[in-house]
């Protein structure tokens, strides 16, 4: 190979290196654009992360308040059931007492009716004896 041929090959290599450098510069520009877009995306994700954490906190507080309210309602329901059960027992006792009272009154009524019948018989005898 002579000097001109070597010089030609070196020029070709130089031209190829320049073309490669241009492509690398374009690739670097695209990487810079991609990095810029990723930075924007990361900023939006960080903003969303903060909002999600805020929502998680609010939802957790809401569930805690809801649990407290449900527990209070359950406690109130149990107290109401106890009051109702007590009232039912009291009503049962009152009904038993009324039943016993009515039974005694019916027994008294039967006894009074029997006595009235006997008194009539005695009155009829007395009337019959006095008319003789």
Description:
With 132 residues, the protein is mainly α. Helices cover 98% and strands 0% of the residues. It contains one helix and no strands. It has one helix at residues 3-131. The radius of gyration is 55 Å and the shape is rod-shaped. The model has no long low-confidence stretch (mean pLDDT 92).
List the helices and strands and how they pair.
Elements: H1 3-131
Q: Nearest-angstrom radius of gyration?
A: 55 Å
Order of helices and strands: H
Share of residues in strands: under 5%
Number of strands: 0
- Overall pLDDT: 92
Helix content: over 70%
Task: Detail the poorly predicted runs.
Answer: none
User: CA-to-CA gap between the ends?
Assistant: 184 Å
Shape: rod-shaped
- Helix count, DSSP H or I runs of 4 or more residues: 1
The major beta sheet can be summarized as:
none
Short synopsis of the structure:
With 132 residues, the protein is mostly helical.
Descriptive keywords:
98% helix, 0% strand, mainly alpha
